[in-house]
Amino acid sequence: MTGAGLDDDMKGDPSGSSSVYRFWMPKGTSRNVVFLTDGNKSPIIWEHNYQYRGNWRNWLTCLSGMGVRCPMCDFHEKEGKYGRYKIQLFTVIDCNKFTDKKGVVRENEKRVVCAKKDSCEVIARRWKTLMENGNTLRYAMFKVHRGNSDKSAGVGDDYEFIKMVDPATIADPAPMDYKELFAPQPEKMARVVEILSSKVAAGEDAPEGTDTSVAY
Ligand SMILES: [Zn+2]
Fold first, then answer.
1. What is the pLDDT of residue 66?
2. What is the distance in A from the centroid of ligand 1 to the CA of 127?
3. What is the 47 CA–ligand 1 centroid distance (Å)?
4. pLDDT given at position 19
5. How far is the CA of 58 from the centre of ligand 1 (A)?
6. Structure confidence at residue 204 (pLDDT)
7. What was the pLDDT predicted at 207?
8. Which of 67, 91, 101, 160 sits in a 20 to 30 Å window from 39, CA-based?
9. Distance 10 CA to ligand 1 centre (A)
10. Cα 68 to ligand 1 centroid, rounded to whole Å
11. How far is the CA of 107 from the centre of ligand 1 (A)?
């Protein structure tokens, strides 16, 4: 099994399959979120998304920002997949109520919206309107809707402003630690690329897009 050693490494690893900190919603659903970061406090980074054992919930921050060659970018150049793309990071409170795997009902969890280009543009337009009305993106509540199409964004396509939330009602308004969550991981990336390359060499590689259950 070529994947030996990678699964263990992914336990508790924010760039691995346990990426619960990322805001995500199923197709054809709506939910409310409250922004905790303003538009000018939202960093932009480059990352790679790759498929591993049929699962697309795997990301690695591109190493190009470190001023070194990025093995995933090299892989993309050679194989034509898993290319890097830009995301903008916003910390939000996800107001969605859900039952976790242990049967515990949870809501108002902090998440990072990792917005690609189209979602960024929507959020930027909403932010502009808020500023024109003397408000901030921070503490603004939106109803987010995700469409049904395969092209719909995992972070939602439509952000409808609901109201400004009283900051006094938010227990922990600090943004999430992006530096920690999105830290480049050169050693892990080297192992991932080695595994992905060996899968290609062995002809085991599933065509891109085979698993659309989690479309990012
Ligand atoms: Zn890269």
1. 87
2. 30
3. 7
4. 73
5. 14
6. 75
7. 52
8. 67
9. 19
10. 10
11. 34
The owner of tokens 């009305």 is: 133
Strand, coil or helix: 209:
coil
* Stretch (H or E) spanning 121: helix 117-132
Residues of the chain where predicted confidence (pLDDT) is lower than 70 = 1-18, 205-216
- The confidence score (pLDDT) of residue 216 equals 41
Annotate 131-166 with three-state secondary structure: HHCCCCCCCEEEEEECCCCCCCCCCCCEEEEEEECC
Cβ–Cβ under 8 Å, residues 1 and 132:
no
Burial track 178-192 (b if 16+ CB lie within 10 A, e otherwise): eeebbebbeebbebb
Question: What distance in angstroms lies between residue 66's CA and the mean position of ligand 1's atoms?
Answer: 10
Residue 115, SS3?
A: strand
Query: Residue 110: is it exposed, middle or buried by C-beta count within 10 angstroms (0-12/13-18/19+)?
Result: middle
Taking Cα atoms as reference points, which of 48, 82, 40 lies closest to residue 65? 48
Q: How far is the CA of 36 from the centre of ligand 1 (A)?
A: 28
The alpha-carbon radius of gyration of the chain (Å, integer) is 18
What's 23-72 look like in SS3?
CCCCCCCEEEEEECCCHHHCCEEEEEECCECCECCCEEECHHHHCCCCHH
**Ligand 1 centroid vs 138 CA: distance in angstroms?**
31
